[in-house]
DNA sequence: AACCAGGGGTACC
DNA sequence: GGTACCCATGGT
C-alpha cells in the first residue's frame, strides 16, 4: 500500500542539507538510512511505503500552501521555492540530529557526510543484509574511544560529542521528553549541550523535532539576507513556518549556479 | 569582541 | 600534486 507521491524529489532532499545519509547508490536509485532501516527510492518513480517512511518524509503535508505565502514581488523567494519544489522537512531522530549538527559546524556538506558515515561504521549497529550501519546510539557512542572518534575526522568537536553523548545516556537532558516542550523551551534545553549554539539548536529543532518555525541562519542564509534583502529578511510573513522557507533559500542559494 | 579550532572537500593552477 | 580558500559555528 503506497500513498500518492507528489511534490517529492529525493535528489533535492539529499542536497538540502538536512539529511546526510541519502546517497545515490546506482544511477537514479537513492538509498537512505534512518532509525536502523534502509529504503531505496527510484528518483523517476518514487514509491514511499506507508507507516514509518511516509511519516519520515512528511508525506501528509501540502507544501504548496506554504509556498503560496510568498509574495510575487519577492523574485528571489519565488524562484527559490520553484527550484526547491519537492523538498520536504524530514522528521528525523533528535539524537542523530544533535550529534550530526554538532559535527556540522565549520564543515561543508560532503565533509559532514563522510564524518557521519565514519561514525556509523565505527560504532553503529549492523543492519541485516546491508553494508551500511545504523547511526550509533548514545551508549554505543559513549563506548567509543577518543582516538577512534578522532579518526572519524571530528577534530575539536570530539569532546563536545563525547560530553553530549554522556548527557543523553545519563538523561541529564531527555531528548524524548523534549518533544513536549514549546519551541522556546526546546531551544534553551538544546543550548545546554556543549558544541550547541543558536544555529545548531535551530537545526536540531527544525530537523529533529519538526519545529518548522525554527529559522537556522548559517553562512549561506546570512549571505542571502545580506545580498538579496539588504540585511533585513521579512520573516514575519512566514510566521510559524519560517523553517520551510529557509529550506528553499538554502537549497537555491547553493544550487542556482549549477 | 576578536580570535582560534581539525581538517576535509574543491576549484584552480 | 600543490595550494589557497571555504565550510549548515561555538567557545574562550
- What's the total helix number? 13
Q: What would the principal axes of the Cα set say about the shape?
A: globular
Domains, number = 2
Specify the biggest β-sheet. 3 strands, antiparallel
Q: Which architecture of the largest domain would the CATH scheme give at its second level?
A: Orthogonal Bundle
Low-confidence sequence ranges: none
**Assigned CATH class of the largest domain:** Mainly Alpha
Strand content: 5-15%
Provide tags for this entry.
single chain, 258 residues, mainly alpha, TATA-Binding Protein, Endonuclease III, domain 1, 2 domains, three-stranded antiparallel sheet, 13 helices, globular, DNA-binding
Task: List strands and helices in order, with pairings.
Layout: H1 10-14, E1 23-26, E2 29-34, E3 37-42, H2 52-56, H3 64-67, H4 75-83, H5 94-104, H6 109-123, H7 138-143, H8 146-150, H9 158-169, H10 183-190, H11 198-208, H12 219-229, H13 242-255
The structure holds a DNA duplex (13 and 12 nucleotides).
Structure explained in plain terms:
The chain is mainly alpha-helical. The chain folds into two domains: 2-74, 2-Layer Sandwich (TATA-Binding Protein), CATH 3.30.310.260; 94-204, Endonuclease III, domain 1 (Orthogonal Bundle). It has helices at residues 10-14, 52-56, 64-67, 75-83, 94-104, 109-123, 138-143, 146-150, 158-169, 183-190, 198-208, 219-229, 242-255, and strands at residues 23-26, 29-34, 37-42. It has a three-stranded antiparallel sheet with strand order 1-2-3. A hairpin with a 2-residue loop joins strand 2 and strand 3. Helix 4 crosses helix 13, helix 5 (94-104) packs antiparallel against helix 11 (198-208) and helix 10 (183-190) packs across helix 11. It is globular, with a radius of gyration of 18 Å. The N and C termini lie far apart (37 Å). The mean pLDDT is 96. It binds a DNA duplex (13 and 12 nucleotides) through residues 17-18, 101-102, 104-112, 114-115, 150, 153-158, 160, 194-200, 202-203, 216-221, 250.
Amino acid at each position: 500500500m503506497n500513498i500518492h507521491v507528489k511534490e517529492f524529489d529525493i535528489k533535492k532532499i539529499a542536497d538540502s542539507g538536512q539529511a546526510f545519509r541519502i546517497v545515490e547508490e546506482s544511477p537514479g536509485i537513492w538509498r537512505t538510512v534512518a532509525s536502523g532501516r534502509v529504503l531505496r527510492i527510484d528518483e523517476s518513480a518514487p514509491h514511499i511505503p506507508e507507516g514509518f517512511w511516509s511519516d519520515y518524509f512528511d508525506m501528509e503535508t501540502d507544501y504548496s500552501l506554504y509556498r503560496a505565502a510568498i509574495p510575487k514581488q519577492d523574485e528571489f523567494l519565488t524562484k527559490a521555492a520553484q527550484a526547491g519544489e519537492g523538498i520536504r522537512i524530514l522528521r528525523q531522530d533528535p539524537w542523530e540530529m544533535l550529534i550530526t549538527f554538532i559535527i556540522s559546524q565549520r564543515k561543508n556538506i560532503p565533509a559532514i557526510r563522510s564524518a557521519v558515515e565514519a561514525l556509523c561504521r565505527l560504532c553503529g549497529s549492523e543492519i541485516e543484509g546491508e553494508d551500511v550501519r545504523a547511526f550509533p546510539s548514545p551508549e554505543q557512542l559513549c563506548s567509543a574511544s577518543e582516538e577512534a572518534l578522532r579518526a572519524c575526522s571530528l577534530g575539536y568537536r570530539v569532546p563536545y560529542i563525547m560530553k553530549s553523548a554522556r548527557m543523553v545516556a545519563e538523561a541529564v537532558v531527555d531528548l524524548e521528553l523534549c518533544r513536549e516542550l514549546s519551541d522556546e523551551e526546546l531551544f534553551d534545553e538544546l543550548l545546554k549541550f556543549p558544541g550547541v549554539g543558536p544555529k545548531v539548536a535551530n537545526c536540531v529543532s527544525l530537523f529533529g523535532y519538526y519545529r518548522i518555525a525554527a529559522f537556522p541562519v548559517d553562512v549561506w542564509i546570512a549571505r542571502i539576507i545580506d545580498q538579496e534583502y539588504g540585511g533585513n529578511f521579512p520573516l514575519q510573513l512566514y510566521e510559524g513556518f519560517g523553517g520551510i522557507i529557509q529550506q528553499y533559500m538554502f537549497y537555491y542559494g547553493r544550487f542556482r549556479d549549477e
